[in-house]
Amino acid sequence: MRLLTLSALLLMSGAVWAEDTPLRFSIADAWSMPLVQLDDHQPTGGIIFDIMQSMAAQAKLSAEYRVVPIQRVQRTLERGAIDVRCYAAQSWMPNLSGDYTWSLPLLIQRDLLISTPENATPRAPETLTGETIGTVLGYAYPTLQSAFDSHRLRRDDARSEVQVLQKLQIHRYRYAVGNQWSLDWFNRNLPEDQQLRGVAVIDEQPVGCIVRNDTQIPAQKLMRILLRMRMSGEIDRIMSRYNTVSGLPPDGPAAQP
């Protein structure tokens, strides 16, 4: 009996410790609205922030955010300095080492070739030669990589997605790559004749969250929470706050825990 009581106390103390320990999320400093709003180097709003906040709250854990350069996010995850990375795709981390659990897709990111209003004719990327393309430092563009490697196209890296579009707007280059959400957000207050235009779809990528498999992290519980968030329509409601959509097909009724 004393042994059982001691075991129960140890289990209870472990549960209390786990609940007091924050869930550590990564935030890439290159992200911008509507994905994340950063103020004083901390997230305060945006689609991904809202998803992570809800995820932690439903797990009854506090959330801690580590803002890091995009090039260091994978290394930060691999060395255990963060627990969860959201807005991630397996194709972006082909050499990831360690033990992780991937969530189901939460969003579909559509990457576009973007140009200015006066150059808005649809254009297949493979027909471009000798162009400088606006890109984000540290971002991978798998469908364009061979063109960059062969120097048929040149990258012009900026530190954030919004900076890429700002440089396109002032004609630092004729084309840039950006996702549909960032383009729509950038255009939202511009007159129609000044709005940047998507001229081709570069890629469509399902994105979700990745969680370290660690005894101190409730990975499977977090996976169930994310499944519920998607199936219940919570992800779509978060997207609607920012006047956009997830890109996923409609789901069935809410998943049961």
What does this structure look like?
The structure is a single chain. With 257 residues, the protein is an alpha/beta fold. It folds into 2 domains: 22-108 and 205-241, D-Maltodextrin-Binding Protein, domain 2; 110-204, 3-Layer(aba) Sandwich (D-Maltodextrin-Binding Protein, domain 2). The chain is 31% helix and 27% strand. It is built from 8 helices and 11 strands. The chain has helices at 2-20, 47-58, 73-78, 145-149, 161-169, 180-187, 219-231, 234-241; strands at 23-28, 37-39, 42-45, 63-68, 84-88, 100-102, 107-115, 131-136, 153-158, 175-179, 197-212. The strands form 3 sheets. Strands 5, 6, 7, 8, 9, 10 and 11 form a 7-stranded mixed sheet that branches. A two-stranded parallel ribbon has the order 1-4. A two-stranded antiparallel sheet has the order 2-3. The two termini are 33 Å apart. Mean pLDDT is 89; it is low at 1-17 and 252-257.
What's this entry about, in short?
By secondary structure, the protein is of the alpha/beta class. It folds into two domains: 22-108 and 205-241, D-Maltodextrin-Binding Protein, domain 2, CATH 3.40.190.10; 110-204, D-Maltodextrin-Binding Protein, domain 2, CATH 3.40.190.10. Helix content is 31%, strand content 27%.
Question: Which properties best describe this structure?
Answer:
257 residues, alpha/beta, D-Maltodextrin-Binding Protein, domain 2, 7-stranded mixed β-sheet, two-stranded parallel sheet, 8 helices, globular, disordered N terminus, disordered C terminus
